[in-house]
Amino acid sequence: MGYSPVTLRIRTKGKNVLEQNIELAESSRALDEIQITTSHRRFGNIERINHKDIEFLPDASGNFESILKSLPGVSSSNELSSQYSVRGGNFDENLVYVNDVEIYRPFLIRSGQQEGLSFINSDMVDGVEFSAGGFNAEYGDKMSSVLNIKYRQPTENRARAEVSLLGANGLIEGIGKNKNFSHLTGVRYKTSKYMLSSLDEGGDYT
User: Fold this and answer.
1) Alpha-carbon Rg of the chain, whole angstroms?
2) In whole angstroms, what is the distance from residue 139 CA to residue 42 CA?
3) Residue 183's beta-bridge partner residues?
4) Cys-Cys with 91: which of 61, 83, 112, 133 at CB 3.0–4.6 Å?
5) How much is the pTM?
6) 23-38 burial, b if ≥16 CB within 10 A, otherwise e?
7) Could you tell me the domains of the chain?
8) pLDDT band at 113, cuts 50/70/90?
């Protein structure tokens, strides 16, 4: 609903005062059709994470879970641990998928390995999706969160290695001559010996 425009030509001479009352006529105009569409997502409240941000986080562990701990609702009681809790839940209430395969024991500490080494090799990660609630029932009966990780597909032959006071890691990837097969191999080692040995072990308790 609106008004039709009115055009007037006015001529004045000298200092004559002209008074004109203008009345606008109402008019209606049909607007163009608006279409609203949506796309289906696998589960709601999803957050896509850039796995490369782990290189810029000021975290001593260097684990992939350091990115998750920076998200709302995610917390951890130990900076060097790979365990995390979401919205007050226990660490074993988090669902973890790697290449669409559910990982029932995503913590190496359960397998008798040293604490602090993450199950996820961040050098191999291509895409990460995280949901802190509101996911579909098809993803199991976990109550806290869903972490969906995709490992990348090698596209060239290359290798990389890193060494620090907390450990070392290496990665080798490659493809066949006819691109009919590929391989992605990672090796990691972690130790907190050099960092913890610098702390004072004695004290005066009297």
Assistant:
1) 31
2) 10
3) 174
4) 83
5) 0.61
6) eeeeeeeeeeeeeeee
7) 46-153 (2.170.130.10)
8) very low
